[in-house]
Amino acid sequence: MFKLSEDGLNIELKWTSPVLDVHHGGSVLIDGYIYGSNWINNGTGNWCCLDWNTGETKYEKTWKCKGSVISADSMLYCYEERTGYIALVKPTPEDFALVSSFKIPAGTGPHWAHPVINDGILYVRHGNSLMAYNIRKN
Questions:
Q1: What tens-digit pLDDT sequence spans the chain (138 residues)?
Q2: How many CA atoms lie within 13 A of 136 on its CB side?
Q3: Domains of the chain (ranges, CATH numbers)
Q4: Secondary structure, 3-state, the chain
Q5: How much is the pLDDT for 81?
Q6: CA nearest 26: which of 47, 51, 1?
Q7: Which of 6, 23, 78, 107 has its CA 20 to 30 A from that of 123?
Q8: CB under 8 Å, gap of 24 or more: what pairs does 25-34 form?
Q9: CA distance 63 to 75
Q10: Region for residue 45 given its phi and psi (left: phi exceeds 0; alpha: psi -120 to 50; beta: otherwise)
Q11: Are strands 2-4 and 11-13 parallel, antiparallel or unpaired?
């Protein structure tokens, strides 16, 4: 983690961590913690949480496979890239708190597209298929 100087001309190294070596799934920052998946374990990866200020690893857990992550309504939406599961996860630095999950039912090839949420709809593309899920609170 680098800190940019006020004048934008210099940087200061704040911390480093080998744990969150994001491949292409991205990461999100919520309440001072970074959530994402890494490339460790020969590419299957783990889901992890790091403290934004210190870089301290809060957890590193295996769930299916690495993937992409987005956040909405104080929840994480994790889309693992090998078998196409979507997980709803409560963001907490204590654990990978899985609330529920389901498998994407259509499409071909790797699950590399990043999900998108717009106006209460979760959009997930897999190959030539696009699924839309209403995730609005009732």
A1: 899 999 999 999 999 888 887 777 789 999 999 999 888 766 678 889 999 999 999 998 888 878 899 999 899 999 998 889 999 999 999 999 999 999 999 999 888 899 999 999 999 999 999 999 999 887
A2: 6
A3: 2-106 (2.40.10.480)
A4: CEEECCCCCCEEECCCCCCCCCCCCCEEEECCEEEEECCCCCCCCCEEEEECCCCCEEEEECCCCCEEEEEECCEEEEEECCCCEEEEEEEECCEEEEEEEEECCCCCCCCCCCCEEECCEEEEEECCEEEEEECCCC
A5: 86
A6: 47
A7: 23
A8: 25/66, 25/67, 25/68, 25/69, 25/81, 25/114, 26/68, 26/69, 26/70, 26/114, 27/69, 28/69, 28/70, 28/71, 28/76, 30/71, 30/74, 30/76, 30/91, 31/91, 33/58, 33/91, 33/93
A9: 17
A10: left
A11: antiparallel
* Structure-token pair, residue 117: 């949420």
Question: Which amino acid is residue 128, in one-letter code?
Answer: N
